[in-house]
Amino acid sequence: MTTTAYHIDTQRSIDALNALLRGELAAVETYEQAIAKFDTEAPRDLAECLRSHQHRVQQLTVRIYDLGGKPAEGSGLWGAFAMLIEGGAKVFGRKTALAALEEGEDHGLAEYRDRSDDLDFESRRLIEAELLPEQLKTHDAVRNLCRACA
User: Fold this and answer.
1) DSSP secondary structure code for residue 75 in this structure
2) CA–CA gap between residue 68 and residue 57 (Å, rounded)
3) pLDDT tens for each residue of 35-60
4) Deepest of 49, 81, 96, 143, by most Cβ within 10 A of its Cβ?
5) Quick count: other Cβ atoms within 10 Å of Cβ 110?
6) Cα 65 to chain center, whole Å?
7) Structural domain boundaries of the chain?
8) Can you give the pTM of this predicted structure?
9) 137: number of CA atoms within 13 Å, CB side?
10) Angle at the Cα of 116 (from 100 to 85), degrees rounded to 5?
C-alpha cells in the first residue's frame, strides 16, 4: 500500500470518526438539557444514557488521536439542530423532550451504521464491538421511556 493510499484511508476514518464524535457531543448537550427539564424527577435512565454518550465521546476522541487526527471540539450543525429541537421541547414539556431524545437516538443509530464503510479495521472493530451496542442500549432506553409516557 502506498503512503498516499494509507493517508487517504486514515483521513477518511478520521473524518467519519469526527462525524460520529460531533453526534455524540450533540447527544451530551441534548441529554443535559433534557435532564434539566425534569429537575429532580428525571428518570434514572436519562442519566445513564448521558453517561454512555459521554463515555463514547472519550472513546472516539482517543481513537481519533490514535490515528493522528484532531478531534472535533463541538457538535457542529447537528448540535445546533439538536439544541433547537430540545429548546422547543423545553417549552412544550417532558413528553416532547423525550421525543426529541428519541429522534436524536434514531439519528445516532443511523450514523453509526452508515459510517461503518468509511472506517479502518480497528475503528470499525471499536464501533461494532463497543459503541454501536451502547448506541442500541440508549436508543432502546429512550424508546421505552417514550412509550411509558404515551
Assistant:
1) -
2) 17
3) 877 766 667 889 999 999 999 999 99
4) 49
5) 12
6) 18
7) 3-149
8) 0.85
9) 14
10) 15
